[in-house]
Amino acid sequence: MADVVAQESGSVMEKLSLEESGSPDSAPNSPATNGSSEEKNQGLTAPEHRSKVGVDALVLGESLVRFMGAPGQVQPRGTWASIPGQSFNCRVGPNYEKTKQKKPSAAALYDVVGLDLFFSSTKLSHIAQHIATKLPAAEDRLINGVPTTLIINLQMPSYSPKMVGKSTKEEGYTIVVIMRMTDQAKKEVQNGTTPAAKLLCRFADHANPKYPLHNRLKCIGVCRNLQDLKFGMGLSGTVKQFNGKPFFTGPKCHTFFQGDGYLEIDVDFHRYCWAFKKAAHKVLDYTKSMVIDLAFVVEGQTDDELPEQILGCARLNLLDGKTHSLPVG
Q1: Which of 58, 88, 101, 257 is the most exposed place for a label (fewest CB within 10 A)?
Q2: What pLDDT, in 10s, does the model give residues 86-145?
Q3: Dihedral-angle region of residue 163 (phi above 0 means left; psi in -120 to 50 means alpha; beta otherwise)
Q4: Taking residues 300-312, what's their average pLDDT?
Q5: What secondary structure letter does DSSP report for 60?
Q6: Mean pLDDT score across all residues of the chain
Q7: Do residues 16 and 3 make contact, with C-beta atoms less than 8 angstroms apart?
Q8: Which runs of E-coded beta strand occur in 125-273?
C-alpha cells in the first residue's frame, strides 16, 4: 500500500510512501484569496460571533453558504463550492502496482449538496441521527443496495495534542459533507457498468465494522494557493510534502453508520497519531488564508477495480473556524 495510515501507533512521518493525487495546477479555476468587494456585493460572507445552537435545532447542510457563481467569479471567504471530480488524479490500470499511473478522475459519483462547520465541546458522532437531514423520497434512497445519500463527518480536535498519554478532551470542529448520488452514477450502480460503480456496491454493502473493504476509504486534501502562504519553519516542509496526498481514514479511526437511505462515515481525527494531530493543529491557524479542495475515494487495487473514481469533492474557501463555525451545544 502506498498511502499514509495516520493511526495511533507510530509517527505519520514514518509511514509508507505516499501517492500524488492532486496539485495546484489541476484546480478547475484560479482560487480566490481575497475578493472583499465581491463578498460585499454578493452578501455571502458567513456571519461572525454566531450564537450557540442546540443539536436538535440544526438541519444538516445549512451552516455554511454554498457559492454558485459563474466561472471566473471570485468565491467569497467562508463559503464552499462544488468542483469537478476531474480536479483529482486517481489510480488507473492496467497493472497499477507496477506503473503507478494516475489520471484525472471521471465525474464524481456523488454531488456535494451541503457542507457544515460546527464547533462543540464534545464530538458529534452519528450526527445524522440527531440532526434533521433532507433525504430523497423513499423510493429513491437506495440504488442496488447503495444509499443515495452519503454523509462524511470529520471530527477535528481544536486543542494542542499531548505527546505522551491519551487525551480525554473532545473539543473541536466537525466538518460534515453531505452528498447525493448523481443521476449518471445511479445508472452505473444499478447496472454495474463501471469498475468504480461495482466497487461502490461492495463498499456500501456491509455495516460490519470489521468489513475489510471499509478500510479502503481515502481522504484527499489539496491546498490550491500554497504558494501564497507563509508557514513557520518546519511546518512549511510538512505541508508541502503531504499536500494532495491521499490518506486512509481507517481502520481504527472511522465508524460506519447505516440509516434509512443514508450511509454516514465518522472520521475521528482525535484518535490519529500525535504527529498528525500536531501538524493539523498548527495548520488551523492558517485555514482562514487557505483554499482547500477536499475529496474522498475508495481505493481500487486490482485491474477490475480500476480506474478509481472520486466519490465526492468540494472547495472550502478561506474558512476561519473561529468566525465561520456554528457553535453547537
Answers
A1: 101
A2: 999 999 999 999 999 999 999 999 999 999 999 999 999 999 988 888 889 989 999 999
A3: alpha
A4: 98
A5: T
A6: 86
A7: yes
A8: 142-143, 146-147, 149-157, 172-181, 217-223, 247-248, 254-258, 262-268
Residue ranges in 26-131 assigned as alpha helix (H): 36-42, 96-99
| Alpha helices (H) in the chain, listed in sequence order | 36-42, 96-99, 183-191, 195-203, 235-242, 274-283, 321-324
Give first-to-last CA distance, the chain, whole Å. Answer: 40
Phi, psi for residue 26 in degrees, rounded to 5: -95, 5
Query: Residue 172: what residue type?
Result: G
Grid-cell match 445508472, residue found:
187
Q: Residue 217 and residue 259: Cα distance in Å, rounded?
A: 19
26 closest CA partner among 192, 222, 162, 213:
222
Q: Name the residue with cell 447503495.
A: 146
For residue 89, give the C-alpha cell: 488524479
* Cell numbers representing residue 187 in the block: 445508472
